[in-house]
Amino acid sequence: LGRALVVKQLEMLPVEAVARGYLTGSGLIDYQQTGAVCGIALPSGLVEASRFDEPLFTPATKADLGEHDVNITFDDVVELIGAERADELRRLTLQTYIEGAEHALSKGIIVADTKFEFGVDVNGLLTLADEVFTPDSSRYWNADDYVEGQVQNSFDKQFVRNWLTGPDSGWDRHGDQPPPPLPPAIAEATRARYIEAYERISGLRFDDWIGGTA
After folding, report:
1. What is the pLDDT of residue 66?
2. d(CA 37, CA 59)
3. Distance (Å, rounded) from C-alpha 106 to C-alpha 189?
4. 187 and 132 in one domain?
5. CATH number of domain containing 143
6. Gap between the Cα atoms of 143 and 105, Å rounded
């Protein structure tokens, strides 16, 4: 079948289903400001990259193109989709994250957090859709380099974010100008990180994939 896909029409839920195993990103900002993440109270003294005792379900709104998603509470999700569906969404999100994170860790990669999207099919079945455990929707860290309290080496789009928000890009993220084109060196380094994550997690060579030369 090569690159063929089997597709199903779904009515997508208006919620980003985020699972977090570690404190970082917007979760860290939320924690520093409120002592909680998406309304979930956390112990004091946590720092960048602290590991949670249990993964958290930290949903977010689906923002319009060009806007940022906004973290919301579980009660907000209940208001949006109802209590029964919200419970199911939380359960499937955490179950999927735990299984994927355990597999990745066996390959030396930490899945710090990830985002899923779910939709409902014509039979009312809640179904995982869109991208799953990609470097665009997940934070991948090198387990061998993990040190709590500092920013981690990553295999995801955070590398691009760091360049865009750093001094080398010359871009003001709070201004009205679009971000600059990525320099070839940044694009190639990002590509190399994505390929390494793919090969380590899958156990396959990227060049052997039918689309690997694209």
Report:
1. 55
2. 10
3. 24
4. no
5. 3.30.470.20
6. 7
Q: Would you say the pTM of this structure is higher than 0.85? A: yes
Tell me the C-alpha distance between 100 and 174, whole Å. 35
**Residue type at 53?**
D
* Beta bridge partner(s), residue 69: none
Residue 29 pLDDT > 80? yes
Name the domain count of the chain: 2
Query: Does residue 4 sit within a domain?
Result: no
Q: How far is the C-alpha of 104 from the C-alpha of 202, rounded, in Å? A: 9
Kindly tell me if the per-residue pLDDT of 67 is higher than 70. no
pLDDT of 22 > 90? The answer is yes
Average of per-residue pLDDT values in the chain? 92
Alpha carbon separation from 105 to 42, 99, 111 (Å, rounded): 24, 10, 8
Do 158 and 99 contact (CB within 8 A), yes or no?
Answer: no
